[in-house]
Each structure stands twice: as structure tokens, then as C-alpha cells.
Amino acid sequence: MAVKRIKPESPTTDNRWKMVDVTMRRNGYAGHALIETLHTVQDVFGYIDDPSMRYVAQALNLPLSKVYGVATFYHLFTLKPKGKHTCVICTGTACYIKGAGDLVDVIQQRYHVRTGQTTSDGKLSVVSARCVGACGLAPAAVLNGTMLGKQTADELLDKIERVLEDES
After folding, report:
1. Torsions phi, psi of 95, nearest 5?
2. Strands (E), the chain
3. How far, CA to CA in Å, does 12 sit from each of 30, 52, 79?
4. Tens digit of pLDDT for each residue in 111-142?
5. How far apart are CA 131 and CA 9, in angstroms?
6. With contact defined as beta carbons under 8 Å apart, do 100 and 91 qualify?
7. Are 100 and 131 in contact (CB under 8 A)?
8. How far apart are CA 73 and CA 146, in angstroms?
9. Can you tell me the distance from the alpha carbon of 32 to that of 9, in angstroms, rounded to the nearest whole number?
10. Of 50-64, 74-88, 98-112, which range is least confident?
11. Per residue in 21-42, pLDDT tens?
12. pLDDT over 80 (residue 75)
């Protein structure tokens, strides 16, 4: 005799939880749907927070430690809200040799944020990547999805400033 599973209460009344529920229901609320479910949470909310992980753990009948372990292991998942704009700095070998460290340093000094963090005003997230596949353009950065090659610290800061000013 099958045991009827009782779906837990959604963390909020936000209608986006229905999309997360659809993902879990489509997979029969099975544990193997964890990664797909976490992707759905991140796609609809922009990040995966503690209440989201607790909800997914209860709904899929998994230990919270497993959900947290998966969410923190894969670099594609983020546990904090992203900024309105994102700057990815390539720190791969070619970029690093050609000055990516300077790019990282100047952004950290100017915006008081480390890689992997978002500015306190929520406007800019700074991320590093092992390689963005543009070694011939080293040092490279990606600002809001646009590849920027052969960047100097001043050029990159200028481009970031223009993006931030355009929203004002």
C-alpha cells in the first residue's frame, strides 16, 4: 500500500512556488529531482535561500544537509541575491598572467566587495571564473553578458561606472 505524501506549505504565498511544485510533481517528488528542483528555484527567484532549501528538503523527503550540500557544491547555484549588474572577471592562467589580478583588486577597492559578493546597494555582483574561453583577449571580463577583452583596470572601471550610471 502506497503512503500518501503530504506536500509541505510553501515558504511564502508567492505564485512562483507553483513552478517549483510543478518540477517536483513532474518527477514524482523523488530525491533524484533535487538538482532540477534547485535549478527551478534559482531560475524563478534568482537565488536559493535557507527557506527554499528547507521547503525542497521537506517536499522531496531529503535531509536538509543533502540539499545544502548540493546547493553549495555546484558553483552554478547561488545562495544570495545577485546584483542588478554582474561583472565576471576571468582568472584563468592567460588572463591572470596578463593582469586579471589587477582587475580584481581595483574592483574590490572601488566597490568594497570581494569576488563572489554583491555591493551593499545590490547594484553590482562581482564574480571570478576560471576561464571564460577568451584567452586571446586576456585579461578578459564579462559585464552583463558582454565580453570585454584586453581590459586595463581603468577601462573596466569606466565601463562599470557607465553601466551603473545608465540605470540612474
Report:
1. -65, -40
2. 85-90, 117-118, 124-129, 141-143, 146-148
3. 22, 10, 17
4. 999 998 899 999 999 988 888 889 999 999 99
5. 41
6. yes
7. no
8. 27
9. 21
10. 74-88
11. 999 999 999 999 999 999 999 9
12. no
Percent of the chain surpassing pLDDT 90: 73
- Let me know: does 119 contact 162? Beta carbons within 8 Å: no
Tally of CB atoms within 10 A around 167: 8
Q: pLDDT band at 1, cuts 50/70/90?
A: low
Neighbours of 155 (CB within 10 A): 13
Residues forming beta bridges with residue 146, ordered by sequence position: 143
> pLDDT band for position 4 (50/70/90)?
low
What's residue 2's pLDDT? 54
Q: How far is CA 152 from CA 90, 97, 127, in A?
A: 13, 13, 17
Provide the edge-to-edge strand list for the sheet that holds 117-118: 117-118, 124-129, 85-90, 141-143, 146-148
Question: What is the rounded CA–CA span in Å between residue 97 and residue 28?
Answer: 49
Nearest CA among 38, 28, 34 for reference residue 7: 28
Q: Helix, strand or coil for residue 143? A: strand
Q: Would you give the distance in Å from CA 146 to the centre of its chain?
A: 17
Cell numbers for 111: 566597490
Q: Which three cell numbers stand for residue 39?
A: 535549478
